[in-house]
Specification:
92 residues; mainly alpha; 3 helices; 51% helix; elongated
Amino acid sequence: MKRLIASLALVVGLMVVGTDARAHDAYDDSQSHPLRLIAYAVHPAGFALEWALTRPIHFLVSTPGLDRVFGHTPHDDPYGGYSAYSIETDDF
């Protein structure tokens, strides 16, 4: 019985032993500013609203045929006017 208790105590002790606490990036004082702390709490809500509300709305209003109804105009090409590469089968 003493061996069982000693073994369990050893296992629990090894599980409790901590490792070094490390952050994903370097810490500086700007991360402790009160507005930054509030932003940490508010950002997930804004992220969720963007993906759950505004992106589906944009998808709807930018649908070909409905874009004229909603007055949506396309934005500038984010790729700087480069067209997508396509393979022409007639060239081979």
